[in-house]
Design brief:
single chain, about 300 residues, eight-stranded parallel beta barrel, 12 helices, 8 strands, about 50% helix
């Protein structure tokens, strides 16, 4: 498998849900089936395993190891597998990174430390320490709504000096900050907020780490390709057709709605783990209507 240096993790990556059995245990066969479905039928050239949508806060280290191994066995020869290893404990994150590297993953996703709200100097030290701990390329994950702390432009500029910090998954929604970071660094930007896929790509983003691509991966790939080709009319049309899907999936936590949709479509997903709760009948009915408006039938 070869990679494009300008797109170090691919173009279309799904932030994959973690399938659970009905008793809440990990469904390893389901993880393999879903990974293969996303890569072989949904136009994904990469997967992020144990990002937010993978319910990483409620998965043990041993479970993470087992799922990563299973996904690598299923698709690691034809898709980039990126392991979410970020926590709010630098030493723990370094251990997770080393473990993922030993398994053979192709890259690391490192979220801003949450809850302890370190200053920007602490963020930089956290990111570079994890990057120093392996030989793998790193994608930083900037999502202040979940972490309480944005990665400031100056911090990204400093982080970009590290040879293995090569990309950002942006769910901050600050288009001006994205523009300035792109102007001042060679970081590869991936949209991490589906509603902003088009503007982030138009600013110079190289791809997406998407949640809705569980359901509309080929159309997300079409959107990315249209922007890359400079065909903004097509990109706008595709984006407009996807608006009901974006809205429907994110009326509540995306993992809740996506798992409900995947279960309805016969794909392995299962329940969510507490403190999340599964979609109610009313939420599922609304989701079904939203997805239908976006061309997806449950």
């Amino acid at each position: 498998m070869t990679t494009d240096p300008a797109r170090p993790f691919g173009r279309v990556l799904t932030a994959m849900v973690t399938p659970f059995a009905e008793d809440g245990s990990i469904d390893l066969a389901g993880a393999q089936q879903l990974a293969a479905h996303l890569v072989d039928r949904c136009a994904n050239d990469g997967l992020v395993v144990f990002g937010t949508t993978g319910e990483s806060p409620t998965v043990s280290d041993a479970e993470q190891h087992a799922v990563l191994e299973a996904v690598l066995d299923a698709v690691g020869d034809r898709a980039t597998v990126v392991a979410g290893v970020g926590t709010n404990d630098t030493a723990h994150s370094m251990d997770l990174a080393r473990s993922a590297e030993r398994l053979g993953v192709h890259g690391l996703l490192v979220v801003t430390p949450y809850y302890n709200r370190p200053p920007q100097a602490g963020l930089l030290r956290h990111f570079t320490s994890i990057a120093d701990s392996t030989d793998l390329p790193v994608m930083l994950y900037d999502i202040p709504i979940r972490t309480g702390m944005p990665i400031e432009v100056e911090t990204l500029v400093r982080a970009a000096e590290h040879p293995r910090i090569v990309a950002v998954k942006d769910a901050k929604g600050d288009l001006g900050a994205i523009a300035w970071t792109l102007a001042r660094t060679d970081l590869a930007y991936y949209s991490g907020e589906d509603m902003l896929n088009l503007p982030i790509l138009a600013l110079g983003g190289v791809g997406v780490v998407s949640v809705v691509s569980h359901l509309v991966g080929p159309r997300i790939a079409e959107l990315v390709a249209a922007v890359e080709a400079g065909d903004l009319a097509t990109a706008r049309a595709v984006n407009e057709s996807l608006l009901p899907v974006y809205t429907g999936v994110f009326r509540t936590q995306g993992v809740i709605t996506v798992k409900a949709a995947l279960n309805a479509l016969g794909q392995p997903a299962g329940p969510v783990r507490p403190p999340l709760v599964d979609a109610t009948p009313e939420q599922f009915a609304q989701l079904r209507d939203d997805l239908a408006a976006g061309g997806v039938t449950l």
